[in-house]
Amino acid sequence: MSSCYKLRGHYGGPQSFATQSRLIKPSDVALPAWYSIEMVATGLTYPTGMTFDEQGTPYVTESGYAYGEVWLPPRLLKINADGSTTQVAAGDKNGPWTGAVYHNGFFYVSEGGELEGGRILRIAKDGKTTVLVEGLPSMGDHHTDAPIVGQDGYLYFGQGTATNSGVVGPDNYNYGWLKRYPSFHDIPCKDIELAGQNFTSDNPLTEAKGDKAITGAYLPFGTPSQPNQVIKGAVPCSGAVFRVPLQGGPLELVAWGLRNPFGIAFSPENKLYVTDNGYDTRGSRPGYGSGDVLWAIEPGQWYGWPDYSGGQPMNTEDYETPDKDPKFLLAKHPNSPPKPVAVLGVHSSSNGLDFSSNSQFGFQGEAFIAQFGDMAPEVGRIYGPVGYKVVRVNTNTGEITDFAVNKGKTNGPASEMKHGGLERPIAVKFNPSGTALYVVDFGVMPMTEQGPAPKQQTGVLWKITKTTAK
């Protein structure tokens, strides 16, 4: 879940967190010829991910936390044949639950850990819960992300960063966590050497008028850095992909230098891919025009955060804002970052990811990505709504094509377009046979003068199938 500042304001609607009715009309969604979409379940509250058991029964995670400092119990729900839900398990006030995967009789759930740190949970069908991993650095802007099981018997998952671009600032106070955890900051996965760049900002932690704070990268708010200062690496760390044995054990670093690797999937060729949310135009070190990306993950690689965007250096005019220059934070870089498979829309919040593996569905071998949509006016300038759809990516060419998008002359969420289509797709998942693509739709979340105002019981689970052989 990611966000952005816009020239346009919020898109209207009640400016509160209250429940709001939602029109559901599948015919308002445009699809390629021969494909159809239907509603499977509705009335969900902040759904984030899904999985299937051995019978092909779908299960959905409800976040329990949403930007805007909304706190509810996170839940794992079974979706019954009639669209009703049955609770399998619920968590405490430590959401968001960002996704789940089912394997050999157990659900593995990523608990985002906004209050107490991220965890990986193993949940039996009777709801009994065991903590597999804990103590993940998730109390900041981004969280512990959705898991997947590899053929090697390991559970893989992403871990987001604490900040937008490596420096704690007043924007993190607005997100709520700087006040709770004033010493929290990003943690590198390996030793790094700082360039000594420092950033002066207002100090929201004091009541003194005009009080300023000077903050360096990878350090607590109000702590300046020094040139050539070494920050020791640690695991767990910020902005990385990890793996852990399914039975539990030591946490292993797979790759780092990522910002928010929300979506994760293996291709039919068993290649690991992640989606990564780009920089926002906010905070003490904003970056302009940074697109979300799709990465092919190579073990041991550093992917460029906080000094590169999609393989391109941030200290160039391409990413400058009128009053900020995103200079390099690191004196030395671990390696030259790879090039992404594809660069997606700026502030599209390209999140959940899965691959088509069945020729009956079509587009076999291509990646399908859910785009949550921008969160104006929080973190960047754009001229119209971005995201709010499902796209497919040819990983050989990098070509991106709309797959499921709301009908209309302009783009945007259904509530803005005044119809019953997609609102905020956050995850996609093919059923076990690969014949249907399920889309998890987070629900209605207007952006108000005070920030996000997500609506309860407006989440939807959609199902897309191919109706006739082309």
List keywords for this structure.
470 residues; mainly beta; single chain; globular; four-stranded antiparallel sheet; disordered N terminus; 35 strands; 3% helix
Topology, element by element:
Layout: E1 29-30, E2 35-44, E3 47-52, E4 58-62, E5 65-66, E6 70-71, E7 75-79, E8 85-90, E9 97-103, E10 106-111, E11 118-124, E12 129-136, E13 144-149, E14 154-159, H1 170-174, H2 177-180, E15 192-193, E16 198-202, E17 212-216, E18 230-231, E19 240-245, E20 252-256, E21 264-266, E22 272-276, E23 291-296, E24 308-309, E25 312-313, E26 342-346, E27 350-355, E28 367-371, E29 389-393, E30 400-406, H3 414-417, E31 425-430, E32 436-441, E33 447-448, E34 451-452, E35 459-466
Description:
The radius of gyration is 21 Å and the shape is globular. The longest helix is centred in the middle third of the chain and has 5 residues, at 170-174. 54% of the residues are buried. The chain is 3% helix and 37% strand. The strands form eleven sheets. It has a five-stranded antiparallel beta sheet, with no helix packed on it. Strands 2-35-32-31 form a four-stranded antiparallel beta sheet, with no helix packed on it. The protein has 470 residues and is an all-beta fold. Mean pLDDT is 92; it is low at 1-17.
